[in-house]
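Hi F.,

I've been meaning to write this up properly since the lab meeting, where we talked about keeping a consistent format for the predictions we share between groups. The idea is simple: the sequence comes first, exactly as it goes in, then the structure tokens exactly as they come out, then a line or two of notes. No screenshots and no reformatting. I'm using this chain as the first example so we have something concrete to point to.
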Amino acid sequence: MGVEFGVLIPTREAVMSGRPDTAPLLTMAERAEAAGFDSVWIGDSITARPRHEPLTLMAAIAARTRRIRLGTGVLLPALRNPVVLAHVVGTLDRIADGRVILGVGIAADMPAIRREFAAVGVPFERRVGRFVEALAICRALWSRDHVSFSGKHFTLDDVTMEPKPPRAGGPPIWIGGSGPTALREAARFDAWFPTGPSVEFFAEHFPRVQSAARAAGRSPDDVLGAAYLTIALDADPAKADARMNQFLETYYAAPAKVIKARQAGYAGAIEGCAEWIQRWIDAGARHIALRFAGGDQLAQVDEAAKRLLPKLNRR
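Output, unedited:
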């Protein structure tokens, strides 16, 4: 298959800047579709990094677009009741005519995220088990009627949910994260979708995810390789790096070098960025979501579509 590209809608940045109006975000999604991108992505955080609720905003984008796919990058199922989550996603995917991608994560162990779990009333220590059970319940509710389930965290007795998503079994589920649990779980789902920390890490671990899928009786091609990359483009590398550092430190309230060690990013000229992204493609990434580090988001959507993507071998 050819390589596809998406863009992150900057909901977090909109809230941080004190401009949470949704009109510019919807316009960016429309611009991404018009520019030829394949997907738009929306992050998830309730209190740790305040931003717009992703599934609600995706419904608005679905109503304003026709072709582009809509993904969560990434949503934390452990924070949701799985029956409610299945219902919301089922309705959303109906609005989107089957264009939803459910990107999901387990949750990193950080103080702000621990406080987020406490605020929602979910024990942080149970996040992995709730993650696994919540997705199992969603898939069951999307696939059949009269679902019963007995787990450590959730129990269902003869539950039927409507409307079901347009695709049998529901939207594809992409697993974010680079830790051992995320790598293990990725083999059971539709894609591995890490934020980094490097192309070398991806090249080392993606074949292992595929091998785990094969060991589970699946085709290695059943698990897509995807990547979430942050870029700051400028002909002056020093200016690009300064913008990247400012963006990361503002976004995460942590030193840029700490975030750079965890997440893959590039700062510099378009030519160098194309070479860097090509390495991800050569390592097996077939869907790449781009997050623009600050600046004029609409202009960067156009610049990436016209000047960056044509430089890549996408086959």
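Notes:
Residues 4-311 form a domain with the TIM Barrel fold (CATH 3.20.20.30).
The chain is about 45% helix and 15% strand.

If this format works for you, I'll send the rest the same way.

G.
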